[in-house]
Amino acid sequence: MNQWGREGRPFFFCISFDRKRSIIVPLEDCGKHGIHFRFPDRQIGTAYTPAMDPIITDYTLPSRDHYRKAFDQVQYHLHRGDSYLLNLTEEVPISLQGNLADVYQAARALFTLYIPDQFVCFSPERFIEIEGNTLSTHPMKGTLSAEIPHAREKLLNNPKETAEHYTIVDLLRNDLSMVGRGTSVERFRYITEIQRRRGNLLQMSSHIQTHLADDWASQLGDIFFRLLPAGSITGAPKQKTVEIIQAVESHDRDFYTGVAGIFQEGKVDSTILIRYITEREGQYYYKTGGGITTQSHWKDEYNEIREKIYIPLS
């Protein structure tokens, strides 16, 4: 990434949550590797219309006992002060009408990515973007069904969701300060609405930015690996929280909650790999989760897992 950034060579990159796996390919070679993506400023891949809309026809949530055990382990660490916020995730078996390629073609999101034999992802969340010497991020933390009466007010005034959002904004402000100067919160706690077939979701976001050195492109790999894993899908403090995640979660995140992006024309855009479906031995799995604080109730968090299992069709 440093070399191609220094050379100004356009490329695609995808980095796993634990930073142990990566796919880094020149943009002109994405087709031969079967990589398909639709990002705000670039699209690569063959388009077709699926014979029918891909739909999640059934899913099997983890048992309440299984989730409660993991939740209680997280609460133990939160009350000890080992972590202030932890993003707990699950892998949910699903039945899917269609296949991963169909999901990619039909899904509509800010960032959509399909890597054959790996996963499809339709993420509403940007990780970082770089334009000029400015690096920006827009963390999403805080979720509520838009169908609830007065949902926006309830989300903005919810003590648990507010604490969760404050923690992530503070963490990412500190993260960006490690790679840039003059870090600032440009816009704090605004609401984004995400469309779903069974009712929309509201998510709380903020805009944070910092300023990079003139030669930032030659340090692009260093910048990303310094910032990863993304704060909004780990928690704070990051290093200890990641250790707890790896001890508590019963599945391998792999590329889920990692990042993917492109470097082209002296600019970077990237996304956090959430809203993610993978396939193993003919079985599809939807990976999903949410942030846990000391104010969380396990039934609410269990329900949030269910709320996030969807495909955003046009």
How far apart, in Å, are the first and last alpha carbons?
34 Å
The CATH superfamily is Anthranilate synthase
Estimate the mean pLDDT confidence: 94
CATH-derived topology:
Anthranilate synthase
Q: Name the shape in a single word.
A: globular
Number of helices: 8
**Which CATH class is shown?**
Alpha Beta
| Corresponding CATH architecture | 4-Layer Sandwich
Approximate strand percentage:
35-45%
* Cα-based radius of gyration, to the nearest Å: 19 Å
| Uncertain stretches | none
Structural class: alpha+beta
Helix-strand pattern: HEEEEEHEHEEEEEHHEEHEHEEEEH
Number-wise, the strands total: 18
What summary fits the major beta sheet?
9 strands, antiparallel
Number of domains as seen in the coordinates: 1
Structure description:
The chain is 27% helix and 37% strand. The protein is α+β, with helices and mostly antiparallel strands. The protein has one domain (2-140, 214-307): 4-Layer Sandwich (Anthranilate synthase), CATH 3.60.120. The strands form two sheets. Strands 1, 2, 9, 10, 11, 12, 13, 15 and 16 form a nine-stranded antiparallel β-sheet that branches. Strand 17 and strand 18 form a beta hairpin. The longest helix has 21 residues, at 159-179. The radius of gyration is 19 Å and the shape is globular. The model has no long low-confidence stretch (mean pLDDT 94).
